[in-house]
Amino acid sequence: MGLLGELLMLPLAPARGSLWVLRQVVDEAERQYYDPSAIRRELARLEERRVGEIDEDEFERAEDDLLDRLQHSTGQDFRQ
To answer: If you count DSSP H runs as helices and E runs as strands, how many of each does the chain have, helices first?
Structure first.
């Protein structure tokens, strides 16, 4: 871009830095959201809550959401 281009873009540096930080935060959040071990822990907790704490419809909805996340993260289909 050259020296002149860099000087003209200098006022945008804080915005570019903020966008970089935001991108890093989103990437980390997605990594944690789709982490297979975290999803499996949530499935185990959901199974524990199934006994007396939540009804069957709520369990199935939550299980479907978790299995969708797990499928997205691993590329495998876990549906029976």
So the answer is: 4, 0
Q: How buried is residue 9: exposed, middle or buried, by Cβ count under 10 Å (0-12/13-18/19+)?
A: exposed
Cα-only R_g, the chain: 21
- Are the C-beta atoms of residues 36 and 73 closer than 8 Å to each other? yes
**Helix, coil or strand: residue 53:** coil
Tokens read off for 25: 């935060």
pLDDT tens track for 20-57 = 999 999 999 999 999 999 999 999 999 999 988 999 99
Residue 59 carries which side chain, given as an amino acid letter?
Answer: F
**39 closest CA partner among 8, 6, 11, 62:** 62
Domain assignments of the chain as residue spans, ordered by start: 27-80
